[in-house]
């Protein structure tokens, strides 16, 4: 994986580090919560809060992980048809990739903020934990922002992962 350092490299490193910390906390939290849930069921005294907690941790983990997959263009995408297509399609596909992914994350930001506003306005609370639901809902717009930052990082620092390889150049190597 070819990595090109840019002016924003330190910023990207900080964001990537924050994502990793959040993901580690969520995974550790899920493991502890699920173990407590199992122990509670075995002993006949289940904790009411463990199911809800594991669900909320999972939501945060999945949304942050979704965004994190775009940092180095490592998320799954279809390249088979593009690799077999004409050269102009390969060049256009990079732009198409950027537009579609940024539009998707933009959608997450806009509508995620709307959901959070609604959760605040309705004063929604978690059933067992009694925490405000916007604490959970905010993971959607946060993921959108992190995803757009990740797309910018992938284009600036890992462009080789974004670019569709040319079959003729591969044959020469």
Automatic annotation (TrEMBL):
Keyword Cell division: no
Taxonomy, superkingdom: Bacteria
Family statement drawn from the similarity comment of this UniProt entry: Belongs to the TRAP transporter small permease family.
Gene Ontology CC: plasma membrane
Entry keyword set: Cell inner membrane, Cell membrane, Membrane, Transmembrane, Transmembrane helix, Transport
GO MF annotation: an example: transmembrane transporter activity
Transmembrane segments: 21-44, 56-74, 95-113, 133-152
Domain named Tripartite ATP-independent periplasmic transporters DctQ component: residues: 30-156
Pfam families with a match to the protein in the record: DctQ
Keyword rRNA-binding: no
Identification of the protein by name: TRAP-type C4-dicarboxylate transport system, small permease component
Compartments where found: Cell inner membrane
